[in-house]
Specification:
The protein is α+β, with helices and mostly antiparallel strands and 251 residues long. The chain has one domain. The protein is 47% helix and 8% strand. A 4-stranded antiparallel beta sheet has the order 1-2-4-3. Strand 1 and strand 2 form a beta hairpin.
Amino acid sequence: MTEIDEQPPDTTGERWFTAESLAEMSRPTMDRAIEAIDAGDYETAKSLCAGMRHEWRFLHDLMAELILGLIDFVQRRCGEDAVADAWRDSMERGWKRDTGAVMQRDRRSVVKALAATWRAHSTSGVGEHPGRFTIEEDDEKFTFTMNPCGSGQRLWRRGMYHGEDAYGVTQEAHDWSYQRAGLPLYCTHCTFMNEMLPIKWYGMPLYPSDPPDDYDVDPCVWYWYKDPADIPERHWTRYGMTKPDPEQPSD
């Protein structure tokens, strides 16, 4: 019998792991790492922390590409207007509530929360083209500069919009694509999530943003203003909307 004809051994009825090993596999990695630190086993703790970075990266990238695949399907099957409808419908269900909660929070605390969000999107610096960002503060705002953004821009740099089975980009310019044809479909959700829908719901953008000019080299930029009244009017006018005059009473 040649080597290629050999059959794998019959392991029917064998136990591959002990009950204790299976129970350990099902426990949160962070819990195991903390226990190792408490026990003074720092090498095990370091190993568990390093492994956890890859656990999250796998799940993060899987979910991001699944979202891209779904919105790509909407575009191909139903057209670009349906892309906008899909984002609006999905965000009305949950993001509207979350946006209202963020706007009610102490604005200083949101800086820390938004930094935590982008740390999560960075996949802890592992994987291909991991997300990276910096934060700068001036008198009126915080500027989050992502290069690359750990979700949409990372999909672009990982080649998801190129080659065989490439995902789609906008075929026409829309207000929800920053007036661009060729905007990566995943990134179209940012106009709805950060600006257009929060303006509709609460009268102002949540996270005013500017997309990269060149997705291969330029950063994606988000802003968090200390006083919402300082948000520039361009974040309204790009959607044909008018920034409310604080001196005028609302209806």
